[in-house]
Design brief:
Chain A: The chain crosses the membrane at residues 23-55, 76-97, 103-126, 138-160, 191-212, 233-253, 265-285, 297-314. The complex is a heterodimer. By secondary structure, chain A is an all-alpha fold. In chain A, 80% of the residues lie in helices and 0% in strands. Chain A contains 12 helices and no strands. Chain A has helices at residues 18-56, 59-93, 95-104, 106-128, 137-164, 176-183, 187-214, 221-249, 254-263, 265-290, 297-329, 337-341. By secondary structure, chain B is mainly α. Chain B has 20 helices and 2 strands. Chain B has helices at 13-48, 52-87, 89-98, 100-122, 130-162, 167-170, 173-177, 182-208, 212-243, 246-249, 252-256, 260-283, 290-313, 334-340, 359-370, 386-389, 395-401, 405-408, 419-433, 440-445; strands at 318-320, 324-325. In chain B, helix 1 packs across helix 8, helix 5 crosses helix 8 and helix 8 packs antiparallel against helix 9. The chains are: A mainly alpha, B mainly alpha. At the A-B interface, helix 2, helix 3 and helix 4 of A face helix 2, helix 3 and helix 4 of B.
């Protein structure tokens, strides 16, 4: 039986200093994931608001839903192109781990292509038929719900891949994507953490978008609603996220969890800072949802960016902690100045 | 076998990559690059001639460009990468390391292109009058340039796989990127993209646009672009052919699977039809027959398929010329594997040593490690199916043929491994093909 099949690294050297690539992977991943968050939550928001509008027979919700679908279809295009960057970085830095974890769920990985093409086309139908299908709401909603369902599912494939690469010793006993969903730890905790972050980010997006717009234009009624409700959604979901974050923390191996709980100064500081900033953001969002002041939205935006940055950094350090023992035993073909001069 | 493997046993691993790649090339060349150039020209002409109908048509095209490129186009582009990672990890792994910074540049241009396309479409109605319209057209030109840039970068990578040039010795980025077929293949592809776009679009214009005067205007634009592109494709195509290695050149007809006269006749007819079509478009734009537009569209897509299959096939037995074979094995490891054994160095092989009991299983691992990238046991493509190709062969036939097959079949990489591994491979193949072992020694012992 294979204990952990880690191949020797590709003989061609990694094309840049690993430190630089690590900075790039954190930044490019954050850029990508924020647009993924927007896409998922704005699609869900559009479907939710449209349904609510049908039940309440109130056109206002329908208008809000239409705006959300419009934004979602733009962000999905940006999310996809931004994704190429982090995929490039992870492929180059973690070749020995990421390629194996990808191939182990190879068919599910390739299904992402078909799933996303279908979801994106459905999103376009959903957006471009909004007025034409006002009296065919069932059909219209079908396209929205279909796109949403696919967008809710696809992150699981990505999560299985990036979690499985952390557990080479469990590769030999894994058997395809669906088995892997329950084979590796962390998966569902990560999924919960990610989905909540998406929804909160979507709410926050509308709050910020219309706070900016308000500086130049007078907002219409639907827009004011989106802004305030966005802040409200951002607030409540983030409160729940504080719990989900701890569930994730407790799904880590004890020795790695302890790094975040006092054993490692950097990681512990990052965790504490992220919680503090999250509490500040919650307070700002709560205020914004209670009264339409929005004065402190720049502060909220800055806090949000800080949280995002810390989360991305911690996420990277987590991977490094998990892979540390393997990286030592299976050295990478590192960049050398000799390569640099060529 | 540095990585686990995947088996699309009926469709074939190679076919998965080919299918995704061909769809992507049709969209990236025909829609993203070619159609954008035509569309911006149409908008410009509409502005100059104050033709509102032409402007509205250009906008409609922009909408479809947006929809198609941001769904099928973008996802199949990522898809080539996804599928090669899953099926040819060693090859894509090497290419990413060689061309890392080119890919970073490609990524930035790619983001720019998508953002510009979104801006271009969504500002169409807002930027309609006077100077705003001029600004919109400029935006379109920048967009067309960005979409061309994505091709200018990725072509460096694609061309290097066939002609890595000095890179094989120096391992230096620029030697790989500016390689012997870079410029001719870039030139060929960019004008091919325009012709493909004309072929795709003109069918839909002929079919959907009922206003004859408007159709005439559109075909006028297409005719102009066609008159430049067709001779350019011809000349650059010859230059491209002239710059590929002789061994590769000799495999062109073979790689299409057609007899030489059929190959020449079909391609000749298709080229002639395209010339007739373009002349018709220029001389009699009001009376372009729809059936001809349909034939041209079909044959253009077929040509793209043929071009991609040929380009991928004539590299054989290599995937990166003179460096890595089509099955991902490095040329430099051949001696090592022959002496020490292939399985010993195959991290993911389930059997690393051959014993009396595991011969067939070990043979399967050799098959997975060296054959499965291109071959199937009994898939739908009969040329790739070993049940078909080795029908009736005994193990002894296999063990005497395989070590020298690369001399007879120039597309085949050499077998790498010890005699025991060769025998194990034959034992596995015989079990799959004949349903039993067919080694005389083995059979007589039983």
């Amino acid at each position: 039986m294979i204990v952990a099949s880690i191949s020797p690294d590709n003989v061609l050297p990694i094309p840049a200093p690993i430190g630089l690539l690590e900075v790039l992977i954190v930044i490019t991943f954050l850029l990508h994931i924020i647009f993924v968050n927007f896409t998922i939550s704005l699609t869900a928001g559009a479907v939710g608001l449209e349904t609510f509008g049908i039940i309440k027979k109130n056109r206002k919700y329908d208008n809000m839903a239409k705006i959300a679908s419009y934004h979602a279809s733009i962000h999905k295009s940006i999310a996809v192109v931004l994704g190429v960057g982090p995929l490039l970085m992870i492929s180059v830095i973690y070749t020995q781990y990421f390629y194996s974890s990808t191939i182990l769920i190879g068919k599910a990985w390739l299904s992402v292509l078909i799933l996303l093409i279908v979801a994106f086309l459905m999103l376009y139908v959903y957006k471009f038929t909004w007025e034409r299908w006002q009296h065919k709401k069932g059909l219209h909603l079908f396209f929205g719900i279909g796109a949403m369902a696919i967008l809710f599912f696809v992150p699981l494939i990505f999560i299985v891949n990036v979690v499985s690469m952390l557990y080479p010793e469990q590769w030999a006993t894994a058997n395809g994507f669906f088995h892997s969903l329950f084979h590796y730890p962390q998966i569902w905790q990560r999924y919960l953490h990610f989905m909540l972050a998406s929804i909160a980010t979507g709410g926050f997006y509308f709050f910020i978008f219309y706070s900016f717009k308000k500086r130049k234009h007078v907002l219409q009624e639907d827009e004011v609603s989106l802004k305030r409700n966005g802040a409200k959604v951002g607030f409540w979901v983030t409160v729940v996220q504080l719990v989900a974050g701890f569930l994730l923390l407790f799904s880590f191996k004890p020795e790695i969890r302890m790094l975040y709980m006092g054993e490692d100064l950097l990681l512990t500081t990052l965790l504490i800072l992220s919680i503090m900033f999250t509490l500040i953001l919650c307070a700002l969002l709560y205020k914004a949802s209670e009264q339409d002041s929005g004065k402190s939205f720049l502060l909220a935006l800055a806090t949000f960016v800080m949280i995002l940055g810390i989360m991305g950094w911690m996420r990277h350090e987590l991977r490094e902690s998990y892979l540390q023992p393997y990286l030592e035993d299976n050295p990478r073909t590192e960049h050398t100045t000799q390569n640099n001069n060529k | 076998m540095n990585f686990p493997s995947i088996d699309f046993s009926w469709f074939g691993n190679g076919s998965v990559i080919a299918l995704i790649a061909i769809i992507h090339v049709v969209i990236s060349h025909g829609v993203a690059i070619g159609t954008i150039a035509l569309m911006v020209t149409m908008e410009y002409r509409a502005h100059r001639t104050k033709n509102l109908a032409l402007d509205a048509l250009a906008k409609k095209i922009a909408k479809w460009v947006l929809i198609i490129t941001t769904t099928m186009g973008a996802m199949t582009g990522v898809g080539i990468w996804f599928s090669t990672t899953v099926i040819q990890p060693d090859s894509i792994g090497a290419l990413l390391r060689i061309f890392f910074w080119a890919w970073v540049a490609e990524w930035i241009v790619f983001i720019t292109e998508v953002v510009l396309l979104i801006l271009y479409y969504y500002t169409w109605d807002k930027w309609q009058d006077g100077r705003a319209k001029a600004r919109h057209i400029k935006l379109g030109i920048v967009l067309a340039f960005a979409s061309w840039m994505t091709m200018a970068i990725i072509t460096g990578v694609l061309a290097a796989k066939l002609t890595p040039g000095l890179w094989v010795e120096t391992h230096a980025f620029w030697n790989a990127f500016i390689n012997p077929t870079y410029l001719p293949s870039l030139g060929f592809r960019m004008f091919l993209a325009i012709l493909l776009a004309i072929a795709l679009l003109s069918f839909f214009i002929r079919w959907r646009v009922k206003d004859v005067a408007l159709r005439q205007e559109v075909f006028h634009v297409f005719g102009l672009w066609g008159a430049i592109s067709l001779p350019a494709v011809f000349v650059l195509g010859l230059w491209y052919l002239w710059s590929i290695p002789t061994d590769a050149y000799d495999m062109i007809v073979w790689s299409t699977g057609m007899p030489e006269n059929v190959f020449k006749t079909l391609n000749g007819i298709a080229f002639a039809i395209l010339i007739i079509y373009l002349i018709w478009m220029i001389v009699k734009p009001k009376a372009v027959p729809w059936i001809l537009s349909l034939i041209v569209m079909g044959s253009s897509v077929a040509f793209i398929g043929e071009f991609e299959v040929v380009r991928e096939s004539i590299r054989k037995p290599f995937i990166i010329y003179d460096y890595m074979y089509a099955n991902g094995l490095l040329e430099e490891n051949r001696e090592k594997y022959d002496e020490e054994g292939f399985l010993k160095h195959a991290t993911w092989a389930k059997e690393r040593e051959i014993t009396e009991d595991n011969v067939v299983d070990a043979g399967r691992e050799v098959f997975i490690g060296q054959c499965i990238t291109c071959h199937t046991v009994d898939g739908w493509r009969s040329k790739r199916s070993l049940t078909n190709r080795m029908d009736g062969w005994t193990e002894d036939d296999m063990t005497s043929f395989i070590p020298t097959m690369h001399n007879v079949r120039v597309a085949m990489p050499p077998f790498m491994g010890t005699d025991e591994e060769l025998e194990a491979l034959a034992a596995y193949l015989s079990t799959e093909i004949n349903g039993k072992r067919t080694n005389k020694k083995e059979v007589s012992q039983q």
